[in-house]
Amino acid sequence: MTHFWASSGHLLLDREVGGGLVVTDDFLKAYLARPEVLPPEEACDAERALHAKLMAQPQAEVAEREIAAIADADARENWRFLLGWRERLLAAPTLQGAYAGIIRRGVSGVPPVFLDQLVHVILRAGLDEEGDPFVVRAAECLFRPQRVTLHENTILLADAEMIEGHEADRHASPLLAMLGGPAVTSLDILKSGDADRYWQRSDAFDLVLDLGGKPSGRAALGKAIAHWVRQIHGFDVEIEAIENVRDANWRWFVGLDAQATAIGNALWKGEALDEDKASRLIALYRLTLPSEVPVLPAAEGAPIYLMLAMDGDRLVRMKPQNLVTGLPLAAHEMAN
C-alpha cells in the first residue's frame, strides 16, 4: 500500500472487515484540537473543565448545564455545534454511513470545511489500493476547490489555495509581475514520466492536473468519482468521459457543482446554452449503474450524465454530496 494523504486523519480511524471507517476517540480528539475549540487564555474555568473532560473521554455525555456555565457566548455556540457534530458522526456504524446521513438530513449550518474533511478521509479509504497517481490527484478535486487555467490548448486544474499564494507572491514582486504568464505555470504539472513524485508530495496539494492530457485527466477524475460512489453506495459503477451529449432523451443528470447543475437544468428544460455557459463546462461523463441496482422509473433505460463546470472566476467547487442524493436509486444502497 502506498502512503499518501496523512493529513486526512485516516490513521486515527478503525476499519471494519468490509472497509467501513469506524470513529475512534483519537479521531474525535482531533476536533478538540481545532483552534476554535481550544480554550483561549481568557477562557473561563467551565470551558477549560469541559475541554479537559472530553480530551480524557471524547464520547462522554455532556449536560446542558456544563455548556450554559461557559461565560463566552461564542464559545457556548461552538461547543453546542461540536457536540451536535459528534452525535452525527456517531449516529451510524461507519463514517461513510454517517456522512450519507448528514447529507440526506441536510447540511444547513455545517461549515463546508467539516464536510470536506469527511470527504477527504472517506476517499483516502476508498483509494487504498489505487496505484495511479493521476487518479489520486484527480480525487483532490472532490474536497479542495480548483482554479482552472486555459493554457496552450489544454485545461489545467491547480489547487485554488496554492494559486492564491503564488498570485500573492507575484503581486509582492515587481519582477514576477513583469514576467507575466498565468500563476499556474509556476507550479509543477503532473506528467507520466515522473508521476510517482506525487506520493511524496500528496499532502502539499501543489501538483497541477492536466484535464485533457495523456494519460487523460478527465478519465482519472472519472475513476476517482467511481471510487467515491463505491464508498458511499457500496457498488461499482462505470464512468466514461464523453465529449458531448447526442441524446434527445435527456432524462437524468447529476451536476457535480452548482454551475453544472444550473447548466443541466437548462438542458433538461430544452433551453439552448449561450456561449458563456457552454464554455464553463469542463468535463462530461456517462455513468452506468450495475444491472442489479434498482432505479427510479423516470430513469429506467436512460443514460445518467455527470457534468462538471467552472464558475465565472474559473473556480471549480465540486459537491460530492450530489452523488449521495442525486443518483436515481430506487432505494438507498449503503454498503457501510
Question: Would you kindly provide a written description of the structure presented here, covering whatever features stand out?
Answer:
The protein has 336 residues and is an alpha+beta fold. The protein folds into three domains: 121 residues; 78 residues, no CATH class; 106 residues, no CATH class. It is built from 14 helices and eleven strands. The strands form three sheets. A five-stranded mixed β-sheet has the order 5-6-4-3-11. A four-stranded mixed β-sheet has the order 7-9-10-8, sandwiched between helices. A hairpin with a 5-residue loop joins strand 1 and strand 2. Helix 6 crosses helix 11. The longest helix has 17 residues. The chain is globular and about 65 Å long. About 2% of the residues have low confidence.
Beta-strand content: 5-15%
Number of separate structural domains: 3
Radius of gyration, taken over Cα atoms and rounded to an integer in Å: 22 Å
Task: Summarize the helix and strand pattern as letters.
Answer: EEHHHHHHHEEHHEHEHEEHHEEEH
Determine the number of helices (DSSP H or I, runs of at least 4 residues). Answer: 14
Distance between the termini: 22 Å
Described by strand count, sense and barrel closure, the largest sheet is: 5 strands, mixed
Helix content: 40-55%
**What is the count of β-strands?**
11
Please state the average pLDDT score. Answer: 90
Query: What gross morphology would you assign?
Result: globular
Helix and strand content put the structural class at alpha+beta
Unreliable stretches (pLDDT < 50, length at least 5) are 175-180
- Strand order in the sheet with the most strands: 5-6-4-3-11
